[in-house]
Specification:
- There is one protein chain.
- By secondary structure, the protein is an alpha+beta fold.
- The protein has 2 domains: 245 residues, BirA Bifunctional Protein, domain 2, CATH 3.30.930.10; 89 residues, 3-Layer(aba) Sandwich (Rossmann fold).
- The chain has 16 helices and 16 strands.
- It has an 8-stranded mixed beta sheet, with helices on both faces. A 5-stranded mixed beta sheet has the order 13-12-14-15-16, with helices on both faces. Strands 2-4-3 form a 3-stranded antiparallel beta sheet.
- It is elongated.
- The chain starts with 18 loop residues before the first helix and ends with a helix.
- The relative contact order is 0.12.
- The structure holds one RNA strand.
RNA sequence: GUGGUUGUAGCUCAGUUCGGUAGAGCACCGCGUUGUGGUCGCGGCGGUCGCGGGUUCAAAUCCCGUCAGCCACCCCA
């Protein structure tokens, strides 16, 4: 191995063609669906004041352990965004848009200092949407449905929608007390790790995958059994909306999610095609208090984020959504030194016909090999004879048509018709 | 952050047990007569064995460290 002096840092990677084209196609598909549903595109900064993310939750790993934060040259505390909801809500509060609900979609890289493994990177990419200014359960349904339909449009079939309600101020405090009391009573039966979690956020104890904690968790009181009348009604409306759309879901009473700002509706999309532990391909929920905590007016909000890298892994596992073709329409073989191909490829590209060519004055045989490898259906051959007569040879690389000599002036029209355009 | 596992040509891997200065397939390049790819045949390029240090007359093979991938936990997309 030619010893490379540098390599991409741990948890980061170069995404080369055609995988990069595939990722772009995924984002385009998502953008199209958002556009159809009336969402506008938001591009927010990749770094923000650290405080924006501290509001996300003092007890979360994302904030306490995993943040890429630093002091800039002006002495300000800066963080590379570990998620986008906080950024989008910050932008909402800052610009105070007049027409509510305000609906936005986004895509881009995010950063978390975690130990990487398949489907988990330190720089990863998400697409997502946020809706601010309405707590209508129909908004919840629209948001969840948009995610669900997106997976469908990629051809994914092995996705499970997990649904839960985390309640709100009207019922959550009472539930928290009940849960905490229960867990403290049973603390002796919990692992030490779980007891530590209990001190920080009792709710998250429910999320433990440790076998020793399973018995205690199985009997724990559940939020869904403690919802206030109003919250229960909201949750029921969300469910019936999903049923009206024929979107299957599973009530998952122990679905907690990692960010403290969630209230009421929470959900997660899990791929059953992924065998590793990182099977969550998307998640989201309501965050009715977040805008206020970032200095805005009390404004309800809901959104989701879908993991681009994990979705593509799941697509691999389901053998769907392949990378788009990068095959040029035409490959130009120039035997006269290469200068004529400069002119011909330029003409073709201006006419909207994708064209690649051989370089370095290689032999015809070598250029034909490259043309074959490129996979182009048509080759244009320019030899001394053609050049002298103002002609080019068009060769069928796949079919039985063989090759024909045409006037160079007719090349664009000839190829357009052969390509069916 | 914790524990485990792996790291040899562009790619997939053999060689590591019992130390003696590197192999295969694919890919790539060239040739198989005059300007023609895909099949086939022949030839060729390519690795200081992740990196650094140690033990040894001698290390891809043993020891230590480090970097990176993978797996589980943690957490999450």
């Amino acid at each position: 191995m030619a010893t490379a002096k540098f390599q991409a840092l741990r948890g980061t990677r170069d995404i080369l063609s055609p995988e990069s084209e595939r990722q772009r196609a995924l984002v385009n598909t998502f953008a199209e669906q958002c556009h159809l549903a009336g969402y506008g595109h938001i591009m927010s900064p990749i770094f923000e004041d650290l405080g924006v993310f501290l509001r996300v939750g003092e007890s979360t790993d994302v904030v306490t352990k995993e943040m890429y934060d630093f002091e800039d040259k002006d002495g300000r505390r800066i963080a590379l965004r570990p998620e986008l909801t906080a950024s989008v809500v910050r932008a909402f509060v800052q610009h105070n848009p007049p027409n509510l609900p305000w609906k936005a979609w986004y895509e881009g890289p995010q950063f978390r200092h975690e130990r990487p493994q398949a489907g988990r990177y330190r720089q990863f990419s998400q697409v997502g949407i946020e809706v601010l200014g309405s707590d209508d359960p129909h908004v919840d349904v629209e948001v969840i449905a948009l995610g669900w339909r997106f997976y469908e449009s990629l051809g994914m079939q092995q996705v499970t929608l997990l649904l839960n309600s985390l309640g709100d101020e009207s019922c959550r405090p009472q539930y928290f007390t009940a849960l905490e009391t229960y867990l403290r009573d049973r603390a002796a039966d919990l692992t030490e790790a779980a007891r530590e979690t209990l001190e920080k956020n009792p709710l998250r104890v429910l999320d433990s995958k440790r076998e020793q904690d399973a018995a205690v968790i199985a009997e724990a009181p559940l939020m869904v059994d403690h919802l206030s009348a109003e919250t229960a009604e909201h949750f029921a409306a969300v469910r019936s909306g999903l049923e009206a759309l024929g979107i299957p879901y599973e009530i998952s009473p122990k679905l907690v999610r990692g960010l403290d700002y969630y209230t009421r509706t929470t959900f997660e999309f899990a791929s059953t095609a992924l065998e590793n532990a990182q099977n969550a391909v998307g998640g989201g929920g309501r965050y009715d208090g977040l805008a206020e905590s970032l200095g805005g007016k009390p404004t309800p909000g809901i959104g989701f984020a879908l993991g681009v890298d994990r979705i593509l892994l799941a697509c691999d596992a389901e053998d769907t959504f392949p990378a788009p073709s990068t095959v040029p329409d035409v490959f130009v073989v120039d035997l006269t030194g290469g200068g004529e191909a400069v002119v011909v490829t330029d003409r073709l590209r201006q006419a909207g016909i994708s064209a690649d060519r051989g370089f370095d004055g290689r032999s015809m045989k070598a250029q034909m090999k490259v043309a074959n490898r490129a996979g182009s259906p048509w080759a244009v051959i320019i030899g001394e004879n053609e050049l002298a007569e103002g002609n080019v040879t068009v060769r069928d690389m796949h079919g039985e048509t063989g090759q024909t000599l045409i006037s160079s002036a007719d090349l664009v029209t000839e190829l357009s018709s052969r390509l069916g355009r």
